[in-house]
Amino acid sequence: MRTRAIMMIGLLLFLVEISLGLTIRTPNGFQIRTGVNLGLWLSSSEKRGLEREQFIVRSNFDTISSTGFDHSRLPIDEVQFWDDNGKKQADPFKLMHNAIN
Q1: What sign for the dihedral angle of Cα 76, 38, 35, 66?
Q2: 14: number of Cβ within 10 Å
Q3: Is the distance from CB of 45 to CB of 80 less than 8 angstroms?
Q4: Same domain, yes or no, for 51 and 98?
Q5: pTM exceeding 0.85
Q6: Alpha carbon distances (Å) from 29 to 14, 25, 87
């Protein structure tokens, strides 16, 4: 019950912030206003190979930007980046690197 109340208060504060048009400023001066979450790409997804590579592409970031979003949240899961034996998988790191740049 307490966790739910804390979540509801957080949601309420977030909605108040949005309705007042408040802006969060990072130490380097970037203003965080409106973002979008890119889940189900490098997290919580069974997509691999070409299907994952084509799921989010450069034109998606261009569309995100042109529709007024100023940042993208990129959630990642370790199962996307390392196999069961702890071996690093190159493809998801390449996709993440390309998304950041």
Answers
A1: positive
A2: 10
A3: yes
A4: yes
A5: no
A6: 21, 6, 37
Q: 54 and 99 in one domain?
A: yes
CB 82 within 8 A of CB 89: yes
- CA distances 4 to 9, 10, 47, 66, Å, are 9, 10, 32, 35
Token couple for 2:
């307490």
pLDDT one digit per residue (tens) for the chain, 101 residues: 667 767 667 666 565 555 555 677 788 888 888 889 999 999 999 999 999 999 999 999 999 999 988 889 999 999 999 999 999 999 999 999 999 98
12 plus 61 within the same structural domain: no
Asked if 34 and 70 count as a contact pair (C-beta separation under 8 A), the reply is yes
Domain count, the chain: 2
Domain that holds residue 74: 36-101
